[in-house]
User: Fold Alpha/beta fold hydrolase from Glycocaulis abyssi.
Amino acid sequence: MRGFLLTLLGILILLAVVAIAAFVWLTRTPEPAPPPEPAAGERTVEAAGLNWRVREDGPAGAPAIVLIHGFSHSLESFDGWAEALSGDYRIIRFDLPGHGVTGPHPDGAYSNEDTAAQVAELLDTLELDRFAIGGNSLGGLVSWRYAAANPDRVAGLVLVSPGGYSINNVGDEPVEVPLPVQLYLRLAPDAGVRMATQTLYGDPSRLTEDRIAQIGQMMRQPGVGEALIARLQQFTLPDPEPLLATIDAPALILWGTADTVVPASHGPRFVDAMPGARLITYDGAGHMLMEEYPAETAADVQVFLQVLDW
Assistant:
């Protein structure tokens, strides 16, 4: 019996050592990924205490449209639209604070209000006068908040599955970020990035290996993992309707019926709350419409942009 107990004790100690080693490995700070090579039209712009990665496509004197990516992604989310629209429009994109090459904010200010104010400072620095603005998910939320605060500067809004109404029990106060989510954001393992990104597509077969690798590379930029966790810890979704009701600019809202992140049922609520909004839905499409169906969605955006009062 004594020998059995000693053996059992040894097994328990071994399991404890393995568990501690696994915890230490999972919570380590991984080596950051190298930044991508700057693309044509890309530059660094200093604003709001940050060095923003900014990319512009299209004629400098053309009507401008600002496109803002969603949570944990980067300006590459709108590559398809930039290619389709840059013949007629000046396309301006950037990595949000705490994302991609822009990297962490020195003050750790990542609330939605903070982000909208930081974007406003960037757009002031870019000396944009009147323009269209839009985005996906978090980027859509930032866009409509900007439009509410700057009505004279916004010619139109393009929102792709925008944040706004409560999801995942997030409301007036942030919710606790589960440890597995923190580990995923901190490490951004290839398998995890693949699985998470596939859930954003209604048809995962349209997601390429190159895009998965690109997302992982941007999530593993220095300090980004911790910044993404900090953003979730500050993330709130109070009732958006008082602000939405003040937006008079024409708005095009695009939503996939198979969106598993922000339900498509939120689309009609945005339309009801915004006087000038129109909704287009895409059967079977997911949360990343502009990536999953870039040509189809860009064509709808092109029609919308043509009738704006620039």
Remarks:
- The beta strands are 42-47, 50-57, 64-68, 90-94, 131-136, 154-160, 251-256, 277-282.
